[in-house]
User: Which sequence fits this backbone?
């Protein structure tokens, strides 16, 4: 686990449970991967939709975190997912999360989830609220 992953995972331990690996991160975009494991599947052995949404939600939260000022925090306000293709057990999915809007009070992110071969599996658009530091 690299230093950035340690920082981001400490902010969101659920990412470690899912097995999300951060590939690159900046205030404008996050790229990460996750291997589809049995515990995250439905029947037949394909990634559960909730797990795919959780993957994207984590990337949007991480991206927002990289834009926060001291003491601020974030929470998801809204998330919309279009499922386009399945992710079978044992495959690796890749999420590319890019900013649509980075404002003072809200940030909007779009995550494209693809297979290792580049097939589009899902598109997730989410709105993150910026929570001000408590005094």
Assistant:
């Amino acid at each position: 686990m690299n230093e950035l992953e340690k920082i981001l995972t400490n902010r969101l331990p659920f990412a470690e449970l899912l097995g999300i690996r951060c590939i690159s991160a900046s205030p404008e975009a996050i790229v990460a991967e996750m291997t589809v494991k049995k515990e995250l599947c439905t029947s037949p052995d394909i990634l559960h939709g909730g797990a795919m949404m959780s993957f994207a939600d984590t990337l949007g939260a991480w991206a927002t975190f990289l834009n926060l000022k001291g003491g601020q925090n974030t929470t998801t306000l809204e998330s919309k997912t279009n499922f386009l293709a399945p992710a079978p057990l044992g495959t690796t999915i890749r999420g590319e999360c890019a900013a649509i809007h980075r404002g003072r009070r809200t940030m909007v992110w779009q995550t494209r989830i693809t297979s290792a071969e580049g097939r589009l599996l899902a598109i997730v658009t989410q709105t993150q609220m910026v929570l001000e530091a408590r005094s």
Observations:
- The chain is about 25% helix and 45% strand.
- The radius of gyration is 14 Å.
- The mean pLDDT is 93.
- The helical segments are 3-11, 14-18, 49-65.
